[in-house]
Amino acid sequence: MSIVMTTRPPEAPSNKVASFKPTLLQTEEHHLCPGCGEPVAIRLVLEVIEELGLAQKNVSIIGHGCYGSFIMTMDVDSTLCLHGRAPAVATGLKRMRPEVAVWTLQGDGDMTSEGLAEILHATARGENITCILLNNGVFGDTGGQMTASSVIGQRTKNTLEGRDAAYHGYPIVIGDMVAAMPGSAFVARGSVHNAASIAATRRLIRKGFQRQMEKKGLSLVEILTMCPTGWFVPASGGADYMMESLGKTYPLGEIKDIAATEQA
Amino acid sequence: MSCTPNRKPVALGPPATGRGYLELDLFISGIGGQGIQLIGKSLALAAIKDSRHVMLAGEYGGHMRGGSSIGTVVIGAKPLKALPILPHAGSAIAMSHLFWERVGSRLRPGSFVLAEETVAADLPDMEQHRLVKLPATAIATELGSRMAAGMVMLGAFAALTGAVEIDSAVAAMAEQIPSYRRQHIEANERAIRAGAASVTPMAFAVDLDAREVA
Amino acid sequence: MRQVTRGTLVIDADRCKGCELCIVACPPRVLTMSRTGNATGYLYPELAPGCTGCTACQQVCPDFVFEVYKYHEPIVSGSDAERMQ
Amino acid sequence: MTMRLMDGSEAIVEAAIQAGLRFYAGYPMSPATELLEYMAEKLPHHEGVCINAATEIEGINMALGAAAGGFRAASGSCGQGLALMQEAIAEAALNETPIVIFNMARNQQDYFQATRGGGWGDYRTITLAPKDLHEAVEHAQLAFHLADKYRVPVIFMGDNLLARTQMGTTLPQLDLAPLPPKDWQLDGTSGGTGKSRQIWTFGCGKTNDPGPGPSKHWERIAAKFDAIAEVEARYEEGFTDDAETLVVAFGSGGKFVEHVVREMRADGHKVGYFRPVTLWPYPGEALERASQGCKRVLVFELNAGQMIDDVRLNVHDRKLVKAIGGVSFDESGLNLGPLMDATVIRERIELAIHGASK
Fold first, then answer.
1. What is the extent of the structural domain holding B183?
2. CA B159 to CA A230: how far, in whole Å?
3. Same domain, D130 and D212
4. What pLDDT sits at residue B58?
5. Cβ-Cβ contacts under 8 Å, D256 against chain B
6. Architecture of domain A38-263
7. How many CB pairs under 8 A join A and D?
8. CATH number reported for the structural domain that contains residue D100 in this entry
């Protein structure tokens, strides 16, 4: 089969329809593993921020996880806060700067293990912040240990035979918990395992930021992200593994949208 | 700080030494609750109105549960040197003889003690102090508000010592009464004025604005 | 065989980490993995004629190695000879 | 301003708001509760926010967020609550977020906590320990000034006596030098400019503008604390020129000791007092000088012996140092106990001078 030359732009008349990276990322380079879903999710958030005209009107509050290294490459005002505390830090900043889009970036270990109190209380207070949860059901940064969101049967470095409900407890389905609270405006779960899901997730993130700017309350956009390294599967198998494991416990779609409720 | 000196003499017991200027230091002793605290706070607020320097401290622990309640008030013309826990004082108001040990043991000899008449007999060692007895509860009862006995004592203390103006004491009391208890203001005012009217100012007045004699 | 190519890519192959997510994401199935490694030893995607410029590869790529172009006029068959290697 | 009668908690809150405090998040705990209540009451009248946090951990992290946004922010509690905040206090030191932490302590057992800290890393916390309400009013202003000046956390350490004793005050304002604008604050306006801002403990900066990285970043912060130690130590002393007995105490204890020493001086005793106003930086050189020629250095503190370590480190002869304080609570366990009493302190000083035989 013939191979097309792809080392430079085409000479025939054409439009560039997609760039390597979103403009709010300073570089394409990062050190995350092959097949990781997090860079894709971060790309979506940055693209949405730009689309909504929030590039010079946003602050990111970043938790602890592999995604944290993006504090060096995301060209937005940022702070990397203590593990689990992002919704609290975001609360303080948002209350003092209500005009700014304040968003948190946390993994499932950060949000549902260490920081469960912070996300739930931020929701209870109805803080106008947008919380992005990158859920891969594992502590990726430390090499693949169980989080509160690891699913039943999931093998991790400290659930070698798979997470056993009787021994390790049940996974925390944070989206449902947050959605059940009156302080949340928008709760949805997306995924980056294929192009269609990515496009859908972009719309969810967009709504998440819109509800914040409409001052409707807290929005939580959970994004299932592949972590083949932490799951001990080949990079190319991450997407399928994710939907067969996490995908069953964490179904995709909108869980709550206060705008829809208000129209009804 | 603007602090117009009030030249009015203030009567008190023997002054504490080492403070530079004279300070009126007072314990208010009784059984837990707001009566004692209200006397202390009214005195302190009134003194502020009279442009004095003031400290008001309580001894905490039992006062919310009906136990001992001791209030401390210090009034002076200059920034105060007194400690928030007074090792000793020169005057006292006694609403009860219960829990008196904490106060009595800390009175300097020759202190001025204003005591509710019915408890005065139960206060030990009064021969070394200047005791003034006042039937505050009887006066308050006659006015139709027995609970205002503390206010009678407040009025009497103010009049006896000249520590604060009577009008300042009334205003200070009124501003502390919560809105849902406005009806008590009038009764309290009558009690303060009745207390003031029931005594004659003491002869052994000391000028708070005078520098302490070494 | 007549082949319509509506778009094309620039692939920053040396930054590719070889995860292969783009291979399955590509609707016209015109991406295949290379046989030899890039600068860091990873296999990387190569493009065959028939790209539609849909951006699916670019969207799924965690390493931002794709840039996507759409031709003003589709290229038919092998007429894009100058871009062949 | 005319004189107003306030308890220490209210005076501190008023002074802090005057000093520009706009955000407070706390959790009730006696005797810091009133501070939270006054904050909740007063901050909304000054375009400020007070949040009843779910935990001390949440509260201090909220304050970190508000401070990162460029606002004067604080949290507070008493020692146990501050124990929960240690990670965030260290974080504030290492990522250079200026915040103030009010510790309305139950006693004086938080000295190590404040001066040594329980967080990780090479950091220090400037700790102000006012002796009474009037000094607390000054310290409430100074705390925010120092926090902003150096981009550090500052601990304001009072106690329940300070919190609850009411005094007349005009809330005098300190004349503090103006500070440069906060060009580091996260106001959200720098995205996409290539000059976006960052607050990060690891100090690595952005790709297009790399920072020094963790090792050099923390080295620089350690050097900053050394520089603070050089210039920000504060103390008060009296009668130290010819004192044979020097009594060292802090906070309310320092006020009591000063009172007792003045009394004893009036009675002819060669006694002096030394009060560190900043617990960190510890005014060690001043103490060394003040203790020259003394026959004994007595340390009065309401704990089992904490500041005494710093006294021993700094006096010219550590063998002269003797503790005369101790653990002292009332029966509720919440308040200063019987040792915080001028009569007791005098007895203990006299016992140390004359020996048990007297």
1. 23-197
2. 82
3. no
4. 83
5. 83, 85
6. 3-Layer(aba) Sandwich (3.40)
7. 159
8. 3.40.50.970
Distance CA D123, CA D117 (A): 8
Return the sign of the alpha-carbon dihedral for residues C40, C44, C46, C52. Answer: negative
Residues from chain A contacting residue C58 (CB–CB below 8 Å): 18, 20
For A234, the closest chain C residue by CA position comes to C19
Q: Which range of residues forms the domain containing residue D139?
A: 4-169
Interface confidence (ipTM) of the complex: 0.92
Q: How many Å is the maximal CA-CA distance in chain B?
A: 50
- For residue D133, what pLDDT is reported? 98
We report the CATH number of the domain holding residue B44 as 3.40.920.10
Which C positions 41-80 lie with beta carbon below 8 A of chain A? 42, 46-49, 51, 53-56, 58-73, 75, 78, 80
B148 part of a folded domain? yes
Q: Do residue D55 and residue D131 come from a single domain?
A: yes
Does the beta-carbon distance from A93 to D53 stay under 8 Å? no
Cβ atoms of residues A157 and A144 within 8 Å: yes
Q: Is residue D186 part of a domain?
A: no
Are D346 and D261 found together in one domain?
yes
A223 within 8 A of A190, measured Cβ to Cβ: yes
pLDDT digits (tens, 9 = 90+) for D257-293: 999 999 999 999 999 999 999 999 999 999 999 999 9
List of chain B residues whose C-beta atoms are within 8 Å of the C-beta of residue D252: 84
Nearest Cβ partner for A35 among C12, C21, C85: C21
Contact assessment for residue B10 and residue B163, using Cβ atoms and an 8 Å cutoff: yes
Judge: A29–D208 Cβ closer than 8 Å, yes or no: no
Percent of chain B whose pLDDT exceeds 70 = 81
Do chains A and C touch, with touching meaning 3 or more CB–CB pairs less than 8 Å apart? yes
Q: Give the type of residue at D195.
A: K
To the question of pTM greater than 0.80 for the whole model, the response is yes
pLDDT for B212:
60
For residue A125, list chain D residues with Cβ-Cβ distance below 8 A.
51
Low-confidence ranges of chain B (pLDDT < 70): 1-20, 33-34, 60-66, 203-207, 209-214
